[in-house]
Amino acid sequence: MDNEQPHQELVKCVVVGDTAVGKTRLICARACNKHVSLSQLLTTHVPTVWAIDQYRIYKDVLERSWEVVDNVNVSLRLWDTFGDHEKDRRFAYGRSDVVLLCFSITNPISLRNCKVMWYPEIRRFCPQTPVLLVGCKNDLRYMYRDETYLSYFRDRSPFVRATRKSDLVMPDQARAVARELGVCYYETSVFTYYGVNEVFENSIRAALIARRQQRFWMTNLKRVQRPLLQAPFCPPKPVPPKVCLAASTYEENMKSLWTRPVHTDVTLIASNCTFSVHRCLLAAASPAFHRLFSMELAQELTPRSSSESSMVYASSIRVWEQLKRRSSFQVLPTMDNQRKSNGATRELNHPAFQNIRICMTENANGVQQPMTVITLSKLITPQAMQQCLQFIYTGSLDKRYHDLQTAPIGLLLEIRQAAEFLELPQLLMVLGSIQTREQFVNSDLNNRYKQVVRQRLEDICLEQGLFADVIFELDDGSVPAHKAILTARCDVMKAMFSGDFRESSAKVIVFPGVREYTFHKLLCYLYTDEVPAISSARCLNLLELANRLCLQRLVNLVESRVIEDLERLSQNEGNDAVENCLRLLEPCKLHNADQLADWCMNHLCVNYNKLCKMSPRSVRLLHPENQEYLNEHRWPPVWYLKDYDYYQKCSAEQVRENKPTLKRNRNQSGCLCFSGSSKTRREGNTGNGGGGTKSTTSSETPADRPLFDASTESGEQAV
């Protein structure tokens, strides 16, 4: 052979097996140290291209063939063969040191051919050559359910078929064939690189042991071990599924309140233009509007002179406590007072507002409702007010104002003046960036403004309960809300308030089966598009309510929050996470929380052993489909546990075989039959010679005699 060193053992390894079982991939992985991806394994097929000439042509391949096994320098030469049964392979078998008999774990027929066809052929040409049975494609034993793997076959169906569970060869089945053939069994995977180096190292050991039996004088082969046991391959832990959130429609919903205003309760008059707007949004965006509406709630609107009226910039503590206790429409004057003061105007001393009054109007359903009318001062033009309101609702201006070249300078100054009067600092920063030609910061300013408005909406509308126009009577209390936001954010609420239902004109709506805690979480989502932290023990009612109102994004947000809580519980040593997953599994499927149900199922599969020890009765009470899924997808799988038990058993047997036996020291012990009696006899003779024997009296019975003579040194039985 070429480049053979005198101190180096040359081992010829022949790889045989059926077609497409993975022989060439295995050889390339060892000889070329080549790692392949899943797409390469699925989309390409490598035919028999490996030849012995590779070691002459490529120097790096020759260098990788050198290996040290049990302090023996070895050069491993791999021979690839065709998988056709009719081919003549006697040239490949010639002078072979070891043969690897390969089969595919996903093809039981290839394992049967190893027993029926390949092993007899090997023994016909190589009667004394050691053989190793190798199972290839070990990764498909757990990857046949992988979505990436299945998508490849789904696109190419029906020409190719994915591996099924019935196609898999389990380790105990392959080991039974190996035991029948009298050979060692190993498994490999080119994808995970499991067992690739191990199977070739043990094939070298088998070849060197066979060579040592023929060349017993070779001292460098005395320390070569027998082929070692292969530790079983544990499949990786299943990755928990990720929660995919539905696209947010919050900005579009709030924009619809500006383009198609419904349930408005404020009318702004600028010159000859009127704007129908919503009190809660104006108060959340502008501190000036918030103080104006708070003054309206705190004081009765009666005609006053302009000198007596002034804008209240700070409300008293008593007024704020009253506002926190009651909603806005409850604080408004009664119907009798409104009839008396209907049309009465209160003059305001403010650069933006001229006067304010309350009048009764009919809504779309023909119901009388109070309407707050605010007349703006002449300092605020209709165009400037329109842009300010558009910014309040949408967080942006018209596109023509985004560029300083297309935007009228005078109108920009009017918008800036209106923003200063209405106390809109974010709008002032946007206008400043336009004037300094730094429009790239507008997106950050818009996002910051939207976040501020959401926080103020939560504080004013939810925490304080201001400016509400409807009350929901729940099982354990009442919660005020705002029809405009509910209509824009929820289609079910929109149908309820806009149709011919009695709830469209009712001030108090009875909502049975819902508690205040659950409804508050719902309002947090509708007002801010976010869900506060919620525990896994109290999420089912919110999931049920979100499913009832057809709010898929709310369902996804709750799923995400609950999974965060379960992950936190799973880091503890207790079984709280497993118990909660078991409790949530089937109700989540009932309420269309499929992602949370999948996560719970994954967590139960990973902790299946703990689950069976903790509550086996609860597992038996699950739906049969869930029980079947848990048994099939449990981790670690059953075949791994069986293989691991077999590995532990074989390892213990090897330890007992290799344990050295204790030998008796011939200088300290003699024959067991005469050691005790001879020693006692010698001591008795010595005692008789000295006249110091002890005689027993006739009254002493055998039962009174001591079992061991105290005069003996080793505690032997006295004679």
TrEMBL record:
GO molecular function: GTP binding; GTPase activity
PANTHER family per UniProt: RHO FAMILY GTPASE
Protein name: Rho-related BTB domain-containing protein 1 isoform X3
Recorded GO CC terms: endosome membrane
Keyword annotations: GTP-binding, Nucleotide-binding, Repeat
Domain BTB: 264-401, 468-535
UniProt GO BP: ameboidal-type cell migration; cellular process involved in reproduction in multicellular organism; developmental process involved in reproduction; hemocyte migration; melanization defense response; small GTPase-mediated signal transduction
Name of the gene encoding the protein in the UniProt record: LOC112453100
One Pfam family from the record: BTB
Ranges for region Disordered: 677-719
Top-level lineage group: Eukaryota
